[in-house]
Amino acid sequence: MKNLIFISLFILGLAFMAKSQYVVKSQINEESVPGKVKNNFNAKFPDAKVINWYKIGATTYEAHIKNGKQTELVVFDWEGRVGEELIQVKSKEFPKDKKTALEEKYKDLKITHVFKVKGTNNFVVEGENNGKIYQIKP
Question: Mean pLDDT by 10-residue block, N- to C-terminus, for the chain (138 residues)?
Answer without folding.
Answer: 45 42 88 96 96 94 94 95 94 90 87 92 89 82
